Fold Thioesterase domain-containing protein.
Amino acid sequence: MTTGHDGGCFGCGSDNPIGLKLRCTAGPGLSLRASVVPAATNLRCIGPVPFGIISAILEESMGLLGGLVPTSMHVEHLSIDCDHFPHAEQELTVEAAIDEIVGDRICTSAVARSVGGRLVATATGTYVAEGALRPVRLFGSCNNQKGARAAEPPTAAPCAERRPYEWSHR
């Protein structure tokens, strides 16, 4: 997948000495699948994967969605709910999608799972586009429903109403 990032990108760059080295594949519509084994990154993660690394994996995966739209974007809001802290040797898979585009705001969501499909965390994000976009509203993609794929709108607050820097951990 071409994301517009270079080898130094923290999320997917092969030349970044402290990067995540996410492996990404574009999915249907405005979605992607990313995978990573935290212990295999340059972060030297061992034991249970810390919340901060799970958060970085989710945010970078949603940020890579910028490669699917014709503009650069940066994060304005991020909300993450962690359910499980997998061992660093396990591969984590993230399904991320653009759920809605309103003006210059891009609403995204992601679900991270470990081996056997066990839910690790869910996330929603609002990104600000640095160029004009056409309005889009997609349902049936990853959303804030604990990883469910629903034919109805997500229950998260609309893009414009989300508060910045909302973090939670169970």
In short: Helices lie at 51-63. DSSP finds one helix and seven strands in the chain. The chain has a mean pLDDT of 78.
